[in-house]
Design brief:
The structure holds two protein chains of two kinds. Chain A is an all-beta fold. Chain A has no helices and ten strands. Chain A is globular. The chains are: A mainly beta, B mainly beta.
């Protein structure tokens, strides 16, 4: 079955960077795109960005432009999100999810809590 | 960018009630809307895709409708397990914007 297994919780200081991973199994990795979505405590869902595992094409939400980078490793079927210059506003649960072309996001990881605190 | 405006932000209804949540897009997005259910501490769960297609395993009391700019999610016969927050999302064309969410509670 399709599974997206995300890395563990992170605690970072303001100004630091974080790398989150999302290991995918049960599907042909390069046939799909993947998105990252975050959810601050008590808040709604916020789309961060999308990457194609086929060709590496990517799009980012404007508010994260210049601060986020999505990458994939096809040898390990893993999607990565790097987020730099962290502030307390980046404290959130970050989800990765499968995004088939022209279809809705259907499979989600369990989420990774990132806490930014001095 | 296309905005997705969801309403109401919260509602309280009785068991067995019919509940409707609406989502309005700022531009025509055809039927490229999905609805998700999220319970505390869990990732979102896809309920409905392409505005009206119920996902496998989702109870038939959930239904979706709409096209263009106006969409709705209806829960008929509200059950205790439906307590959750519901989100709409446009799923083609970046950004893949979510609505603000609707928290559904039992009265």
């Amino acid at each position: 079955q399709v599974q997206l297994l995300q890395s563990g919780p992170e605690v970072k200081k303001p100004g630091a960077s974080v790398r989150l991973s999302c290991k995918v199994s049960g599907l042909i990795f390069t046939s799909y795109g993947f998105i990252w979505v975050r959810q601050a405590p008590g808040q709604g869902l916020e789309w961060v960005g999308w990457i194609s595992a086929n060709n590496g094409d990517r799009h980012y939400a404007q508010k994260f432009q210049g601060r986020v980078t999505l990458t994939t490793d096809t040898s390990t079927s893993t999607v990565y999100m790097d987020l730099r210059s962290l502030t307390s506003d980046d404290t959130a649960v970050y989800y990765c999810a499968r995004k088939p072309k022209d279809l809705a996001t259907d499979y989600w990881g369990q989420g990774t809590l990132v806490t930014v605190s001095s | 960018d296309i905005q997705m405006t969801q309403s109401p932000s919260s509602l309280s209804a009785s068991l067995g009630d019919r509940v409707t949540i609406t989502c309005r897009a700022s531009q025509d997005i055809a039927n490229y809307v999905a609805w998700y259910q999220q319970k505390p501490g869990k990732p979102p769960k896809l309920l409905i895709s392409v505005a009206a297609i119920l996902q496998s395993g989702v109870p038939s009391r959930f239904s979706g409708s709409g096209s263009g700019t106006d969409f709705s999610l209806t829960i008929s016969n509200l059950q205790p397990e439906d307590v959750a927050t519901y989100y709409c999302q446009k799923f083609t064309g970046v950004p893949l914007t979510f609505g603000g969410g609707t928290k559904v509670e039992i009265k």
